[in-house]
Design brief:
0% of the residues lie in helices and 48% in strands. By secondary structure, it is mostly beta strands. Strands 26, 28, 29, 31, 36, 37, 38, 39 and 41 form a nine-stranded antiparallel beta sheet that branches. An eight-stranded antiparallel beta sheet has the order 5-27-30-40-32-33-34-35, with no helix packed on it. Strands 3-4-6-7 form a four-stranded antiparallel beta sheet, with no helix packed on it. The protein is globular.
Length: 538
């Protein structure tokens, strides 16, 4: 069992300390900038979508963050914000999970593997973004780009697997990596970032603390800091005044701190970042299943002897804080909800495939065409299933589907996808075409399929076009429900089937997603076109 597979807990706790004037930022020194404006108060979570294991940086007046995506492709989304509150998805650091056939659903499956906690950094000397992460405990990959939206390309592969790594670009341009689980090490990379020059253990977690992982590496006011999580209810920090290889001393940042989402967990495993005006913030995530892990933001001050302190509201991580003081944004970020008509010829970065797609069997051209890519009765084996994060606390996805080119045995539709799934869609069989609601798609804790689904309701449909709708309540807790409905005119929707109870076990790590799919059960050759996807909130 991995250390991160721990029961999630919530309790109470405090952090306190004196204030320290703002210090230099990690990755980019604080400089004078344009006039600033204080945003309105914000509420947590700042993103009610599933973005976990966050690393966050500032480059100039723009903030960027990276997150885990496990088996979804492309991986490691790059989020962008101008105020730490409103975020958009700019691109992905890992264009394809080319780490073995299992990530292609080719003879094996990569569920809950792939992109775990990784690191995002910016190197001013060559104006380049770096992403670094280990895959399958085997090796570490480094990708680079000169713009956050890409294109990203692989720079190197390093034989040491830097588990839960944090990448530091030091003030002298040297690259260091902090990594490990319980035993924390620091590696120095070659000047070109392609090889390991040196690695050394720098800290062993006391047994009284247990496990520490999720490294984030900073240099602030000449001191070196490694920010670490105690999954899933604590955050600690190590500090060295003697250089990146230590020795380090440890201090608790938070433990069993009440979080800002009712029923959710303790905020943890994120990163520290400084605004241009000198204020510090901690962007963490909150375990909030069945939806996933949601980013939450809180201001940070520093003690006189150089330790960070999360600013609390009534002894808890606040549900609301004053907005950061930042320059006016150059533009509004792209909303994470709304309509996508699949205009143009590429997918927008909010979309991720379940494993790598077969690129010969899908296309975008004013509509998304999914040709059947797999013959299977198991959606978990079907390639080219396209996913979109669910917006919390509740939201609704509606798709318009042209099914005229489906063939006998094909299944296409809209799913609520996780290790326990359900869907509404079109079944084309020799006896005709019907809209169907199917539940009972399940996996065990080794991510093997234990149920391929049972049709629990259906209705005959005519013509070649249908609208499908799924609503999901992803507030933390048990008994949260998803419901399905359909329409033949896009206006009047008919409920189909019973409510689906969303599973909230944390071990899948990722939350539920809306998923568009089309797979064959008899033979390849069929196709469908999704002409519209709309994500709405109440």
């Amino acid at each position: 069992m991995l250390s991160r597979r721990r029961a999630l807990t919530t309790a109470t706790g405090l952090a306190a300390g004196a204030l320290l004037p703002p210090t230099a930022a990690h990755g980019a020194a604080s400089t004078q900038g344009p006039a600033v404006a204080t945003a309105a108060a914000f509420t947590n979570p700042v993103i009610w979508q599933d973005f976990a294991d966050i690393d966050v940086i500032r480059v100039g007046d723009t903030f960027y963050a990276s997150a885990s995506t496990m088996h979804y492709s492309p991986g490691a989304p790059v989020l962008r914000s101008y105020d730490l509150v409103n975020w958009e998805i700019a691109g992905h650091s890992v264009p394809v999970l080319d780490f073995g056939a299992k990530y292609d659903l080719n003879g094996a499956r990569g569920y809950v593997r792939g992109i775990w906690a990784s690191s995002l950094a910016y190197r001013p000397s060559n104006r380049t973004f770096y992403w670094l992460g280990q895959i399958d405990f085997a090796r570490t990959y480094v990708y680079t780009a000169t713009a956050a939206e890409g294109p990203w390309s692989r720079l190197t592969t390093i034989s040491t697997p830097y588990y839960d790594a944090g990448l530091l670009v030091d003030s002298d341009d040297t690259l260091y990596v902090a990594y490990g689980n319980t035993t924390i090490s620091v590696a120095q990379l070659s000047p070109d970032g392609r090889n390991q020059v040196r690695t050394q253990q720098v800290f062993t977690t006391p047994s009284s603390v247990g496990t520490l992982e999720g490294s984030r590496f900073y240099k602030i006011n000449g001191q070196y800091y490694i920010f670490l999580t105690r999954p899933a209810n604590g955050q600690y920090i190590l500090k060295s005044s003697s250089g990146p290889f230590g020795p380090y001393t440890m201090r608790q940042v938070l433990l069993d701190l009440p979080g800002p989402i009712a029923g959710g967990g303790v905020p943890h495993q994120g990163g520290l970042v400084q605004t241009r005006s000198g204020a510090w913030y901690y962007l963490a995530f909150v375990d909030a299943y069945p939806g996933g892990r949601m980013p939450a933001l809180a201001p940070v001050t520093w003690t006189a002897d150089g330790w960070p302190v999360v600013q609390l509201v009534n002894g808890a991580w606040g549900t609301s804080y004053p907005g950061p003081t930042v320059p006016p944004p150059p533009r509004q970020v792209t909303p994470m909800t709304g309509v996508d008509t699949f205009d143009g010829t590429t997918l927008k970065p909010k979309w991720e495939w379940n494993h790598n797609p077969d690129n010969t069997r899908w296309s975008v051209n004013n509509g998304l065409i999914l040709r059947t890519a797999t013959v299977t009765d198991d959606l978990y084996w079907a390639r080219n299933t396209l996913t979109h994060r669910i917006q919390g606390p509740t939201s609704t996805a509606t798709v318009q589907l042209d099914h005229t080119e489906m063939r006998n045995g094909d299944r296409a539709g809209l799913a609520l996808l996780r290790d326990s799934s359900a869907w509404i869609g079109i079944r084309r069989d020799g006896t005709g075409t019907r809209v169907s609601m199917v539940n009972g798609l399940t996996m065990d804790t080794d991510w093997n399929t234990t149920g391929t689904g049972t049709e629990v309701a259906s209705a005959a449909v005519s013509g070649g076009r249908v609208w499908l709708r799924a609503n999901a309540d992803i507030r933390p807790g048990t008994g949260r429900l998803g419901t399905f409905s359909y329409s033949t005119d896009g206006t009047t929707f008919t409920r189909l089937g019973p409510a689906f109870s969303l599973g909230n076990d944390w071990r899948f790590f990722m939350g539920y997603r809306f998923a568009l799919f089309n797979h064959a059960t008899q033979a390849l050759g069929g196709a469908v076109r999704f002409t519209r996807f709309e994500l709405t909130t109440p």
